[in-house]
Design brief:
Number of strands: 12
Structural class: alpha/beta
Helix content: 25-40%
CATH topology of the largest domain: Rossmann fold
CATH architecture of the largest domain: 3-Layer(aba) Sandwich
Strand order of the largest sheet: 2-1-3-4-5-11
Number of domains: 3
CATH superfamily of the largest domain: Response regulator
CATH class of the largest domain: Alpha Beta
Number of helices: 12
Distance between the termini: 92 Å
Order of helices and strands: HHHHEHEHEHEEHEHEHEHEEHEE
Length: 365
Amino acid sequence: MRSGESGRLVASGYPAGPRRRILLKDVATSANVSGSTASRALADDPRISLATRLSVKAAAAELNYVPNAAARSLRMKHTRTLGLLIPDLRDPVHGQVASGFEEEARRSGYCVIMVAGENEPARERLALKIFAEHGADGVAIVSGAISPREARERVDPERLILVQPDHHSLPRREGVVPPGVILTDDAGGLKAAVNHLVDNGYRRIAYVEGGGGATNKVRSEAVATTLRSRGVKTALRTFGAGDDTWRDPTELASEIATDLPEALVCYDDKLALALMDALRKLRIRVPEDIGMVGFDGIPFAAISNPRLTTVATPAGEMGRLAAASLVRTIQVGARLEAVLLPPDLIVRESTRTLSPPTRNHDPRS
């Protein structure tokens, strides 16, 4: 016996090898029925007697029989599989979307193939190819880097839903959402956030960008428009930041500190929390020296010090809606509708009241 083989022996004395897959014919033989009868019995076909169904199921359980999903898919013309393409599994918002999507898909009897595209078009195209090769019945793309048009060329548009797409080619006019798209009302959420700041005495308000995507433009314009509508004369200041600035915001924090505004409205919570920490190192306190507002409502915003005022989006609900819409389309041929979800302003300790509101004057007029 060669060294190392003794650990591979089983009680019978024969070397342990890969276990042979139990097939339907094995179940049929054990239950003493035909293969077709065994198949119908396992599917609870009423044409098969209850006694035979119970006998076949007992044999299947004893043999640890697992149905061949691939073979069943060929017969049924679908795989009961959904594809989910997200930018980053590590991102808390994308994680919530993915969790809601998988939960709803599982509840409906579907499994999910999940791929992170890392905001790289080449990786996203590869992901869509993988979904096609595995016969995914429907696909959801979250904030994809490729254009919606290209996505619809690569995936059956009747089985494709876009969640929070961040592309300039997609119309983002107020109240207009194309079919097959799930969006949050970012402009409405930022309007509520700016109104909260103005109502509490803030006037010198700045916006911190989050890259060059269409979503950043929508949020920036919403802040500027709301300030104008409230009669704030001070022009909106904008601080440039990229997608990854939150990882090291030291330089940005120093720039902000040289001419400190009264409040910062940040593209998202990650950036707001990172800036809060970087400003603290410069001895600038939130909210005593500067107010801070984020966007997304990630769990960390509720446990930061101070806790972050934020515009919370229903990320998990977006995922559940995306999966439910795809399943409904697959099963009954329903059209993929447009969905616009309202975010919620959550006021916490990172903002405060600077001065009491002016009497006999409605600043909204």
